[in-house]
Write a structure and sequence with these properties.
This protein is of the alpha+beta class and 585 residues long. Helix content is 38%, strand content 20%. It has an eight-stranded antiparallel beta sheet. It has a four-stranded mixed beta sheet with strand order 2-1-5-4. Keywords: Ligase.
């Protein structure tokens, strides 16, 4: 690893960003040309008859829109060790695994040096804008990051989650050092064999370096919340470790114990201080600033399926701002958060026009234009011609299509975004939802966002009882006639029967999609069912994914559990303690 790195100049990074976004259309054409020149020898592109052409018009004419399903055979040949140029000119040496929470099993996605470089470009760009608004000193970050094990594919390629591939790359550490974002934990904790032990040591390191912690981070808001919920359970044990200078027996991994022994020395004054801080809290409110008095913000992906965790995170954070991290996926990055002062619910992401070639499929809210009594389900399937990056319109919704340097060409990402504005000539996007995560039985179409809004509305009734929804998911039960929606809730305590009946009715009424309402009124969709699951059920789902090789930092609770996710459905159904049917219609 290179010890010396060019000193980080945030103003220079911002200038570079301003330069590439001034004429985003030109940069997009240059980027596509570069992608096609570098990968023109790839079998996939050769078979499509581009014949060396690199202009956008020829590219769109020759190359079809695809999903992962169409590219899967090519990716599996690469993973199985075929050395020929299949999707890229240069060989792919690493495979990323998606979280697997959408489809029930992880997807294989090519990963290469160019993707790593675009990751670092995103990190540097967003840090430059973030540090202008919230400057941090040369302290440390309490970073709840975990690297799951990399394994070898059949063909000998290194494979791991996208976050693991990033954390294990030497560029990551160099960049983190340059942007003053070093973790207060030793590498042995991040790369530890057991995430429960790693989490405990992350918390312990945070307390040891409490005065130096400048920010709190994890890839997703869920991981930050999970960490501090765990802290509630183990804080006294952590204080004992600090007081005596001896690590708890719950940490058994020799590599972690050896690394922690170098940091952990008896410190009764710190243990007393932490004990005093915790016992002075009211219901854990302001936990984070009390523990880390010099922290400036809390940072992680907080949009989309992470939004339901913000209320509890704000409770822990008190006045500390929540800053949403950048926008990307296992397939690659899209945009950076260059407006860090916006709250996560309003966060936008400016597309970096030089990290890939982007197209956008306009999505019309077709249902609004339809006669509710003459709805045709196929009307939802209408697809409009994709438009280029600079042709999108403010206020419109689109599905993103990605072409990148790692062998994805006109790849439908499955994300729905809304254009909120422009930074120079590049659009600023707001994440709306995953397009394929739909509750649908008849002519109803409810997205992940619709589900979130319904849960938020119904959970207000629990707030009156001083209770909260810890986590939730959903399922379409087609075994009944007619089929009906099932919502799974894990609740923080015991709720009365009458309150839960009201919650169930409120959930049913809160799905305001016209197709759903009209179908419920004529009983084409059955009464919504609320199933309350026992405490710890969603922890079992998390453990299930960790057992499949997912990293905690990449975990997202599956919001809609379909037939491909049968094991998760079994966990949910096997832990139901109460069930209620709506009487709202």
């Amino acid at each position: 690893m290179l010890e010396k790195m060019e000193e980080f100049d945030p103003e220079k990074v911002i200038e570079e960003f301003e330069a590439i976004t001034r004429d985003a259309g030109k940069v997009q054409r240059e980027t596509l040309k570069k992608i096609l020149e570098e990968n023109g020898s790839a079998e996939y592109l050769q078979s499509l008859g581009l014949n060396g052409r690199t202009d956008p018009e020829s590219f769109k004419t020759c190359v079809p829109l695809v999903t992962h399903k169409e590219l899967e055979p090519y990716i599996h040949r690469i993973a199985d060790g075929d050395p020929s140029p299949i999707l890229t000119g240069k060989p792919i040496t690493t495979i990323s695994l998606s979280s697997g929470t959408t489809q029930g099993k992880p997807k294989f996605v090519p990963f290469n040096d160019e993707l790593m470089e675009s990751t670092m470009q995103i990190y540097r760009t967003s840090f430059a804008f973030r540090n202008r608004e919230f400057p941090i000193g040369n302290g440390k970050g309490l970073q709840f990051i975990y690297s799951s094990k990399q394994f070898q594919t059949k063909g000998g390629l290194a494979a791991g989650t996208a976050t693991t591939n990033v954390y294990r790359n030497s560029q990551f550490k160099e960049t983190m050092k340059a942007i003053q974002s070093q973790s207060c934990c030793p590498d042995e904790v991040i790369f530890g064999p057991d995430f429960h032990q790693s989490l405990y040591c992350h918390l312990l390191c945070g307390l040891i370096f409490r005065d130096e912690v400048q920010f709190v981070f994890s890839t997703f808001a869920h991981s930050i919340l999970h960490a501090f919920r765990t802290f509630e359970q183990v804080w006294e044990e952590l204080c004992t470790d600090i007081r005596e200078g001896v690590l708890s027996n719950r940490v058994s991994a020799p590599s972690i114990r050896a690394a922690m022994s170098k940091l952990l020395k008896p410190n009764p004054e710190l243990a007393d201080l932490v004990y005093k801080k915790i016992t002075g809290l009211s219901n854990w409110y302001r936990l984070i600033p009390e523990l880390f008095p010099n922290a400036k913000y809390i940072y992680g992906i907080m949009t989309g399926s992470m939004e339901p965790y913000l209320r509890k995170l704000r409770h822990y954070a008190g006045e500390l701002p929540l800053l949403s991290a950048d926008y990307g996926s296992s397939e690659g990055w899209i945009g950076a958060n260059v407006n860090p002062k916006l709250p996560p619910e309003s966060a936008t992401f400016a597309v970096l026009p030089n990290i890939g070639f982007f197209e956008f499929i306009p999505l019309k809210h077709n249902i609004e234009d339809q006669d509710q009594n003459q709805m045709d389900p196929s009307f939802f399937q209408i697809e409009h011609e994709p438009v280029d990056l600079t042709e999108v319109k403010i206020g419109e919704d689109y599905e993103i299509i990605v072409t990148n340097f790692a062998g994805l060409y006109r790849y439908k990402l499955g994300d729905v975004v809304k254009v909120m504005g422009f930074h120079n000539s590049t659009p600023e996007l707001k994440f709306v939802c995953r397009r394929n995560l739909l509750l649908t039985i008849n002519i109803d179409k409810n997205t992940e966002k619709d589900l979130q809004l319904a849960v938020e509305e119904a959970s207000k009734l629990l707030g009156e009882e001083k209770l909260e929804v810890v986590d939730y998911s959903s399922h379409v039960d087609s075994s009944t006639d007619p089929g009906h929606y099932v919502i799974f809730w894990e609740i923080s305590g015991e709720a009365g029967e009458e309150v839960l009946k009201e919650c169930c009715n409120c959930l049913d009424r809160s799905f305001i999609d016209a197709g759903y309402v009209s179908s419920r009124k004529v009983n084409a969709i059955g009464a919504l069912e609320l199933r309350v699951v026992r405490r710890g059920t969603f922890q079992k789902i998390l453990d299930h994914y960790l057992g499949l090789g997912s990293a905690l930092s990449q975990f997202k609770t599956p919001r809609c559990v379909g037939p491909t996710n049968n094991l998760v459905l079994q966990i949910l159904c096997g832990n139901v303690v109460e069930s209620y049917f709506s009487t709202a219609f």
